[in-house]
Amino acid sequence: MNAQDRTALNRLITYLKPHINLIVGSLLAMAVVAAAETSIPALMKPLLDRGFTGQLNSKLWQVPVFLVGLALVRSLAQFLSNYLLTRVINSVLLKLRAQMFQTLLNASTTFFQKNSASTLINGVVFEVNNVLSVMGTMLISLVRDSLTVVGLIGYLIYLNWQLTLVVLVIFPVIAFIMSKINRRLRSLNREQQTLTSDLAYIVEEAAAGYKIVKVHGAEEYEMSRFMQKAERLRQFALKSAVAGGLNQPITQLIASMALSVVLVIALMQSATEGTTVGGFAAFITAMMLVISPLKHLADINQPLQRGLTAAEMIFALMDQPFEEDQDRKQSMKPLNKAKGAIRFDDVGFSYQQEAGRQDALSNINLNIKPGEVVAFVGPSGGGKSTLVNLLPRFFKPTSGHIYLDDIPLEDIVLADVRRQIAFVSQDVILFNDTIAANVAYGANGPAGVDRGRAIEALEAANLSAMIKELPEGIDSMVGDNGNRLSGGQRQRLAIARAIYKDASILILDEATSALDSESERQVQEALDTLMANRTTLVIAHRLSTIEHADRIVVLEHGKIVENGSHEDLIKHDGLYANLHRIQFSNA
Hints:
The protein is α/β, with parallel strands linked by helices. It contains 22 helices and ten strands. It has helices at 3-16, 20-51, 62-106, 109-114, 117-159, 161-168, 170-208, 210-215, 219-245, 247-272, 277-299, 301-318, 326-329, 384-390, 414-419, 435-439, 451-460, 464-469, 487-501, 517-531, 566-572, 575-586, and strands spanning 342-349, 361-368, 373-377, 399-404, 407-408, 421-425, 505-509, 535-539, 551-556, 559-564. Helix 2 (20-51) packs antiparallel against helix 3 (62-106), helix 5 packs antiparallel against helix 7 and helix 10 runs antiparallel to helix 11 (277-299).
């Protein structure tokens, strides 16, 4: 086992330590099971040597009583050990999943850009089970089966040490074979893990984009993508099964060879040293009983390798740094309610993970007053979305500083920064919950929802008529990402969520671009209500929607090229005026 494996195992053991009492109880029960296994051949010798000579006739009734009692004790001990171990494993499973999900919730935006949703789902839901199978299999096999092997071999030595030496020859042979198979299994399991995530990603894409798949008749194409990955996964699964499956038949073959040698030596001893039938039967019984736990110990290799591979992935995910440094958080400033003044001071930003890509933003200097409506326009790729994504600290500027109420953004507690911001985008995200829960998203369960405020927010977002039509009102479910609602209703529900939050700063990212005229009118009315007395940053391609903004900032190639009111920019006859002419001539 290499250093990486030992590190993973040591980390797993730390999760077991809080449950030491249950583990000790389970180990003791396993010891009882192992002792019961050893007692069976020990009973054979006197039973055969004395029972068939009439010496036990007066005590024959004790034999079935002892056997039944032994089986009962063994069964109860095995049940107890499995129950206690299951409690431990499920407690650790809960803790691991909670820590992994906590890491996901606090991970940086860059982390989510590098990892697909299917990879994260696979880790949190499935791979963690492989990790726990390691703990379960190891505790059962390495304790119960090891104790059984030790007990039986001790009894074999007591019976006949010469024959036992023959049996013990198989141990180093098995260990050698396992070490050879071990490396092969590890590489195969890593590849299987990657292919499983890739396969889940294809399913995720096909399910999310089912409309595009159907409209473009791409079912055959998606099926071929799926089958290509599934076939590769099948091949690697077969290779892994072949490599892992070699342990058991090789162990059985070596055990059979050892048994043949034992039989020959035992027959020779019976002629010279007077080995009894009972002694020989007890030895053969103990030897046959030791094969089963030996096979279990040999079979531990495959799940162990699969589990250690999964553990590497799980701990790599759990070791992701939190978005906000917990130690630095202690020295940060709290901010209860911001006035809404925003200042960009020589701000620059680049996506450093993409080599050769030019800066997304450079030399951004902008002062936004509380309550001011500022629109950002310009060609695609100009840096509009990147600029507003710096405000909630989804990304950190690579140069310069952003100030909120004259406080550097990086010096304010991250949760307090985001508490000041409401966000409405073209791509509305709704959760498969009630309308009330979506409006009051972030509230601590149904009890934390202010139903009066939720209804007021829905009314302000022009959703009163829809709510009245629903039999369960605001307690109606919206479906997967709001699929039970129309596009305009989804957009207005997102606006109601922003109204309910009552934040000082509002970010609108193409909030009406995908709507028909009637829906746009209703959404725009709701937005006008939402924007009142709030600092508002608007990203828009349709220039007609931002003509009444207090200021329009034009971005091109990550730089501010124009800044002023609609009338001023039209008179300036620059980039904005050109974009305005193009749109209205097309209209």
